[in-house]
Amino acid sequence: MSTPTHAVPVARRHYPGRHMVWALSCTETVSYGVMFYAFATLLLPMQQSLGYSRTQLTGAFSLSLLVTGLAAIPVGWWLDRHGARALMTVGSLLGAASVALWASAHSLPVL
After folding, report:
1. Mind listing the pLDDT tens digit for each residue in 24-76?
2. Nearest CA to 52 among 103, 109, 102?
3. Between 4 and 94, where is the model more confident?
4. Domain coordinates of the chain in residue numbers?
5. Cβ atoms of residues 60 and 108 within 8 Å
6. What is the pLDDT of residues 76-92, one digit of tens each?
7. Rounded to an integer, what distance in angstroms lies between the CA atom of residue 26 and that of residue 23?
8. Is the N end or the C end of the chain the one with fewer CB atoms within 10 Å?
9. 1 pLDDT band (50/70/90 cuts)?
10. CA–CA gap between residue 46 and residue 54 (Å, rounded)
11. Burial class for 94, CB neighbours closer than 10 Å (0-12, 13-18, 19+)
12. Closest by alpha carbon to 94, among 71, 70, 63?
């Protein structure tokens, strides 16, 4: 008996998780762009507008990263117990509210 030399196409199955992974990839990329990389882009305009030094502004950003790191511990516990759906929704809403507050910050403590 001879074996065929051409590959037999395999029917693709529909995996709904594939769409969720793509959606999560896109939203995470946009979120990181807005929440983290925008700071470097807006640093000079914030410095000119607010009148604070680059050191003070990046110190405020570093403090926010420290707070984020500390908050990750209880958030991780909550995630393990309850899943990601509500957490992602609340996180997105808090992120959007944070960017809105960031845009209206007129002093270093508010920033």
Report:
1. 888 888 888 888 888 899 999 999 999 999 999 999 999 989 999 999 999 99
2. 109
3. 94
4. 37-111
5. yes
6. 999 999 988 898 889 88
7. 5
8. N
9. low
10. 9
11. exposed
12. 71
**pLDDT value for 53:** 95
Report pTM: 0.70
Token pair listed for 24: 């999560």
> Within the chain, what is the greatest distance between any pair of CA atoms?
82
What DSSP letter does each residue of 3-65 carry, written as one string? --SSPPPPPPPP-HHHHHHHHHHHHHHHHHIIIIIHHHHHHHHHHHHH---HHHHHHHHHHHH
Q: In the 8-state DSSP scheme, what is residue 84?
A: S
Distance CA 58, CA 67 (A): 14
